[in-house]
Amino acid sequence: MSTFTKSLAITMALGVLAAPALAETYTFGSGVPERSSANRAGVLPLLEKIETATDGDIAFNPILGGQLVSVPGALQAIADGVVDSGFFITQFHPEELPAASLMSEVTGLAIDPYATMGALNEALFVTCEPCREDLRRIGVVPVLTQSATPLTMQCTSEVETMADLAGLRVATIGRPEMRWASSIGMTPVRTRISDILSGLQLGASDCALIGTAWIRSYGLEDTIKSVIELPQGIISGAVPLAFNADVWSSLAQEDRDAIVALMPGTLWDYVTDAYVTADADVKQALEGKVAFAPGDDALRAAWQEFYAGEADALKEVAESRGVDNSGELIDAIVEVFRVWHEDLLPQFEGDREAFIKIAEERIFSKYDF
């Protein structure tokens, strides 16, 4: 071999060795409508941040709106590797996730969206070991869980007070909302998210207990006539990004670390952009078209009474699902929510950096998947 040929061969070999690795593209499946604020302002920006944080090692192919997986079927699709990653809701899986599904039952403990986001993630990733055991057993790795903004009562007729709601049928997503509706004399109608609009239009329900931004996300602009804005819990328990366990373990350690390091800031940004800002935008857009009322003293008093009884209700749910030491576990979760709302909220209210520091110290420095 000539000197030139040898040099060329060495140069080519070095070039191959020095070439940057191509990004691995992972499928992300979600049954949530593509136009929802959770996707546009929450999930999709997070996927882009991960690609940047991993220097392009990880990229995603998002397949949204039920094109590949449904909302109820997403957990199994992630576990089975039908998708590499995805969005699932713990509420739909009390049998597969008896403890982890409790993350969808804490609606009645939640008041502030940021405190709830912190409390919910601490409950899952630190306090509730049986929750994590559920997810390890099925082969799914969550990297965050989410809450939203407070639920509001949205109706197809003019309502302002608790008396106006008596006897009305209300579309509810979870059991805590059903308990609340029953406690104020309404008739709860358990409804899939995708069926809220048709239920209101066809008269199966008169109201829906959902977040304000959902009016736009689920196409209710021409159906809802009035909203009682009194906060009535915060829906929780969705996991906007989880990986198939084999896929997660195949990622380079530095990429896994980079993803987890994004999470404290993501909690703040996700609830701000996908829900807090979206709620304000939707309310402004509907001014003059939908009547917004604050609720009356009777409704506020009823909520306080309901809130005080939620710990006992949660214990009953946990015990019915066979969760070991359910009373102690619920007491610990309730205490986490109290700490975030009473002790920590004054320390970070309106301060993203303070929130990030607390979330890193209390939650993600202890992440163990």
Q: Any chance you could write out the topology, listing elements then pairs?
A:
Blueprint lengths: L2 H16 L5 E6 L7 H17 L4 E6 L10 H7 L4 E5 L23 H15 L1 H10 L1 E8 L3 E5 L6 H4 L3 E4 L2 H9 L3 E4 L5 H7 L4 E5 L2 H4 L8 E3 L7 E9 H6 L2 H33 L5 E3 L3 H12 L1 H11 L5 H23 L3 H11 L7
Parallel strand pairs: 1-2, 1-3, 6-7, 6-8, 9-11
Antiparallel strand pairs: 3-10, 4-10, 5-8, 5-9
Helix pairs in contact: 2-11, 4-11, 4-14, 11-15, 13-14
Strand fraction band? 15-25%
Mean pLDDT: 92
Proportion of residues in helical segments: 40-55%
User: Can you tell me the CATH architecture of the domain at 16-147 and 237-287 and 313-366?
Assistant: 3-Layer(aba) Sandwich
The count of strands amounts to 11
Please provide a written account of the structure.
The protein is α/β, with parallel strands linked by helices. The chain has a domain of 237 residues: D-Maltodextrin-Binding Protein, domain 2 (3-Layer(aba) Sandwich). The protein is 50% helix and 16% strand. It contains 15 helices and 11 strands. The strands form 2 sheets. Strands 7-6-8-5-9-11 form a 6-stranded mixed sheet, sandwiched between helices. Helix 7 links the parallel strand 6 and strand 7. Helix 4 packs antiparallel against helix 11 and helix 13 crosses helix 14. It starts with a helix and ends in a 7-residue tail after the last helix. 47% of the residues are buried.
